């Protein structure tokens, strides 16, 4: 199959109506979209990504009214949706019967999101069905934040990539569930919408983070996500560099530019240490270091663990290898 890239939404509509797949731009990362109500299209998504069938898919719609056809909203959840949708938030909600089990991998909950990208909102508005869309990368590799990243991973496997430019936020959406019994929100996957943002929008309701490794099928919890092919060590450069074999050339990902000794190349995420900019560039930088023929190994320094920094550190932790694995 030939994979083409363009900005033709008519073509995307036609393909999706015929159960074909289209990579779509969102403000977080590119998604690999298919008709969420078609078993044929959903099966193609799992196959193209080589994704385990037990890992459920996010349902994408363009309005809250549409979302209400597929899930039950508690008033608190509705409030959060009003504030952050369209946007980089995914809500885990009790599903309605209209959602096929194939999308939720049998779970009684469905993940719903309204992406904040004009091309994709236009596309959704012109379709008589919602879109199932995981990140448009082969399962286990780094998520794509540009159309070129999508092509790198899925060339020949899908007919069309709708190019909406580089993703603005650059990290996958924050996944949240309201726990009515305990009266708090649970963040299952950290993103650019932070715990403080969620608490602030709901008059100070408490927000907790799910303990890592809670369950393999739980949102964003698969361990080997976002991983580059090259080994990645996470920690302070000064400490890690000392124990590295002298023959290895390392690319060092830092928040701000740093001067490093020879045989080390610095890949700063932001000129001035801006965390939002760092988040938007993270996946592109990881891919760049991974593809650099002069580099054997990646060292990533943690960024300050506050606000969006927590989501950046989370992705680096998932991409990391331990010294023992080298
Ligand atoms: O920003 C995003 O969320 C992007 C764009 C394309 O919308 N999508 C995305 O999808 O990151 P994906 O499939 O790569 O990650 C979705 C995560 C997975 O970890 C999956 O296990 C979890 O959400 N998930 C989806 N549906 C779920 C459900 N019903 N229950 C629990 N977890 C769910
Ligand atoms: Mg993904």
Number of helices in the DSSP assignment: 11
Structural class: alpha/beta
Give the overall shape, derived from the CA principal axes: globular
Bound molecules: threonylcarbamoyladenylate, magnesium ion
* Average of the residue pLDDT scores: 94
Our Rg estimate from Cα atoms comes to 20 Å
The description of the largest β-sheet is:
12 strands, mixed
Q: Topology of this protein?
A:
Elements: E1 4-6, H1 9-17, E2 22-24, E3 31-35, H2 39-49, E4 58-60, H3 64-68, E5 71-72, H4 75-84, E6 89-95, H5 101-104, E7 109-113, H6 118-125, E8 131-132, H7 147-154, E9 160-162, E10 174-179, E11 184-189, H8 195-201, E12 207-209, E13 232-234, H9 237-242, E14 250-254, E15 264-268, H10 275-291, E16 297-300, H11 308-319
Parallel strand pairs: 1-9, 2-9, 4-7, 6-10, 11-12, 13-16, 14-15, 14-16
Antiparallel strand pairs: 2-3, 3-8, 4-8, 5-6, 6-7, 10-11
The chain binds threonylcarbamoyladenylate and magnesium ion.
Please tag this protein with its features.
326 residues; alpha/beta; twelve-stranded mixed beta sheet; four-stranded parallel beta sheet; 11 helices; 20% strand; globular; binds threonylcarbamoyladenylate; binds magnesium ion
Describe the structure.
With 326 residues, the protein is an alpha/beta fold. 30% of the residues lie in helices and 20% in strands. Helix 10 (275-291) packs parallel to helix 11 (308-319). The protein is globular, with a radius of gyration of 20 Å. The two termini are 37 Å apart. The chain binds threonylcarbamoyladenylate and magnesium ion (MG). Residues 26, 28-29, 31, 55-58, 90, 92, 104, 107, 109-111, 113, 115, 133-135, 172-173, 175, 218-220 line the site of threonylcarbamoyladenylate.
């Amino acid at each position: 199959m030939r994979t083409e890239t363009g900005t033709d939404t008519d073509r995307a509509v036609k393909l999706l109506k015929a159960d074909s797949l289209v990579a779509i731009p969102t403000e977080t990362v590119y998604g690999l979209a298919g008709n969420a109500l078609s078993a044929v299209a959903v099966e193609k998504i799992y196959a193209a990504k080589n994704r385990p069938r037990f890992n459920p898919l996010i349902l994408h719609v363009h309005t809250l009214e549409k979302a209400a056809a597929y899930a039950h909203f508690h008033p608190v959840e509705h409030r959060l949706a009003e504030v952050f949708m369209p946007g980089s938030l995914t809500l885990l909600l009790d599903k309605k019967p209209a959602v096929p089990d194939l999308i939720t991998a049998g779970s009684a909950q469905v993940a719903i999101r309204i992406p904040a990208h004009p091309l994709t909102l236009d596309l959704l508005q012109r379709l008589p069905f919602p879109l199932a869309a995981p990140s448009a990368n082969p399962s286990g590799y780094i998520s794509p934040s540009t159309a070129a990243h999508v092509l790198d991973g899925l060339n020949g496997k899908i007919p069309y990539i709708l190019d909406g430019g580089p993703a603005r936020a650059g990290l996958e959406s924050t996944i949240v569930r309201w726990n009515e019994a305990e009266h708090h929100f649970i963040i299952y996957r950290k993103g650019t919408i932070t715990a403080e943002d969620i608490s602030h929008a709901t008059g100070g309701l408490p927000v907790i983070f799910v303990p890592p490794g809670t369950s393999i099928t739980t949102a964003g919890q698969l361990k080997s996500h976002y991983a580059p092919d090259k080994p990645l060590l996470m920690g302070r450069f000064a400490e890690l560099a000392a124990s590295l074999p002298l023959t290895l050339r390392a690319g060092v990902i830092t928040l701000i530019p740093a001067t490093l000794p020879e045989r080390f190349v610095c890949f700063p995420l932001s000129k001035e240490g801006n965390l939002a900019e760092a988040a938007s560039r993270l996946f592109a930088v990881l891919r760049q270091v991974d593809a650099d023929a002069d580099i054997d190994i990646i060292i990533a320094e943690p960024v300050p663990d506050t606000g969006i920094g927590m989501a950046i550190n989370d992705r680096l932790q998932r991409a990391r290898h331990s010294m023992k694995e080298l």
